[in-house]
C-alpha cells in the first residue's frame, strides 16, 4: 500500500485490463446489432442469461455491457421488466432536451404540463402526417394498432407498441425534428402508460380506440380529423395517467 492506496500486482492489473477489454468487445458487438436493427426500437432484449449463452460469456460481463449501453442511450432498463431498445439521439440538442426533462422529473412539472406539450406537438404531427404519410408509414401504423389490439391483456407489449405508434406518426411527417422533439417526451411518458394500463386494464382498450380513430383519419388523408382524433386520444390518456409516475425514482 502506498499513500493509503492498495497497489495492484502486475497480474491483477493484467486481469483488470483483460476484463475491460472483454466488456469493450461485447459493447461493440451489441452496438453493431442495435445499429443494424437486429432489435427494433421498443423491443425487449433477451434476458441476461440468454445473452450470456448467446455471446458465450458470464452474466457479470453481460451486466457491465448493459450498463454501458444504458450510459450511451441505446437501452432503458425498467425494473422487473427487462431492458428495452431506445430511439437513438444523435444531436446534442436532443440530449439537452432530455436532460432538462430529467431535471423536471424531480418535481418541476406536472402531468398537465406534460400533456399540454404533447397536445401541441402531437396534434401537429397527426395533421401533417395525414398528407405526408407514405404507404409504408401507414402499413407500419396498422401493424402497431394490430399489436396493441392483440396485447390488450399484456401491458408490457401494449406499452411498447403504444410508444412506437406515436413516434411512427411523428416520423410519417417527413420532418426529422418532429420525432426528435417527441422522443424525449415519450421516454418520460412510457412509465405512466405502463402504470396506467397495468392498474386499469380497460385503459388499453380505451386507448386503442383512440389509436384506431387516429389511424382512420390518417388513412382518409384528412388533416383536420387526424388532429382532432389525436386531441381526443390525448385527453382520454390524461384521465388515466398516474401523475406519481413522473416523480418516482428508478430503483
From TrEMBL:
- Which CDD domains does UniProt cross-reference here? WHTH_GntR
Q: Which residues form the HTH gntR-type domain?
A: 20-88
UniProt entry keywords in alphabetical sequence: DNA-binding, Transcription, Transcription regulation
Molecular function via GO: DNA binding; DNA-binding transcription factor activity
Q: Does the keyword Iron apply?
A: no
- InterPro entries referenced in this protein's UniProt entry, alphabetically: GntR_C, TF_FadR/GntR_C, Tscrpt_reg_HTH_GntR, WH-like_DNA-bd_sf, WH_DNA-bd_sf
Q: Which Gene3D superfamilies match?
A: GntR ligand-binding domain-like, Winged helix-like DNA-binding domain superfamily/Winged helix DNA-binding domain
Pfam families per UniProt: FCD, GntR
Claim: Manganese is one of the keywords in the record: no
Q: Which PANTHER family match?
A: TRANSCRIPTIONAL REGULATOR, GNTR FAMILY, UXU OPERON TRANSCRIPTIONAL REGULATOR
Name of the featured protein: HTH gntR-type domain-containing protein
Organism listed in the record: Sediminivirga luteola
Top-down, what is the taxonomic lineage of the species of origin? Answer: Bacteria, Bacillati, Actinomycetota, Actinomycetes, Micrococcales
